[in-house]
Amino acid sequence: MTDTKDLIQPDRGQDATAIHLVNKDGFEDFAKTLSAGQRASLAAQKFDGSGYQVGIVPDGDGFFAVGGVANPESLSSWCLAALAEALPGGTYRLAGERQAGVAMFGWMTAQYRFTRYRAEDKPAGPRVLLTGEIARMEALRAEAEAEMKVRDLVNTPAEDMGPAALEAECEKLAKAHGAQLKVTRGDTLEQEYPMVHAVGRAAARHHAPRIMHLTWGDEGDPVLAIVGKGVCFDSGGLDIKPGSGMRLMKKDMGGAAHAIALAGLVMGAQLKVRLHLLVPAVENAISGSAFRPGDVLASRKGLTVEIHNTDAEGRLILGDALTRASEEEPDLIVDFATLTGAARVAVGPDFAAMMARRDDTAEAFLAAGKENDDAPWRLPLPDSYREWLSSDIADLANAHQNAFAGASVAGLFLDRFVAEGLDWVHFDTFAWRPSAKPGRAKGGGACGLRASWHALRKRYGG
Question: What is the pTM (predicted TM-score) of this model?
């Protein structure tokens, strides 16, 4: 993971290069404060104050930087991200005793690099931003590190990020925060979590299925359950995906990555909760032992599930995990999954599709996301569509046979495994950015993580 301690530091009067922030409306007045040579320099760079523009202006023996933003008086998470990507390595502070606020997040995430398999040819060196907002700096550092954790896990290929590697991540998390971790595998998994076992049983031995259950916090505090889909690679099973659809399936454990990162934030901030993190981890592989279309699977809840499509496997492993989470009678369950292509058709890659049982909980998550530049988009859970999951021989089917409302129908399947009356929020997230934007590199990425974190922080304190 990129070391964020090199990217944001307390301002103690160190030498630093100034950054001026302007927009198109204010650029003409700003330019009047510059020398003719400095104005010419910006003109040569075609700088006019448009968003995400970066200008470097000579100033004596050094220089100062100019960044184009939409509103210099109200910075978003991404206002400084283009500067952090483009400026030379060095130390910077905002001019005029300005503070970066939430834009520190984008300053850090803009400098993320995934170098596990290939180092950068010419590292630019860290761009360090100085700030007087020490408490906020540390809070945003934790958020940026959680974002980078998601990126690292999702970017890692499946051979190196299989179920055992996800288990190792949970072990590392438990050790860092003094939590307890139970891992269920083998015959016990088949007995206690039969759908997790069925989905993962075709994988090679070193990618054998398992479920991780981490617990932390005082038993008297409200129970918060966080669940993440950990399909470490999804071939589609016997209903095999085409090659183009399989290319990015290393990211199908993106829900687990979100859940692990969010649990780290919860424990790091010492929220007053009894945390249960559940990560079912499998590879949906193809072999003679693969589960088949037409099979009927048992589940932890006791419901039987007819398999209409082996490529609708994520909801199966989540069903068992959500059942286990429900057994704790939690105050809230939040789950993350790269669950359906239908969600991407509906909202694209930049929004997490969110479903919730309770309107007030949904509104809290939507508001937290909007306030922190990570707004999800709510989709419905319509009772009228439940009949589409009916089966002639089992309690329900795992996939419906029409092309309608795929994300909502998948949510309705999960709803059958969440105990009646519980507060539950489901995120169908993409966990991938198909193209780069300032502060948001192409590749693995979190979507819905900050919305969830700020909603939980407001709900439980910390």
Answer: 0.97
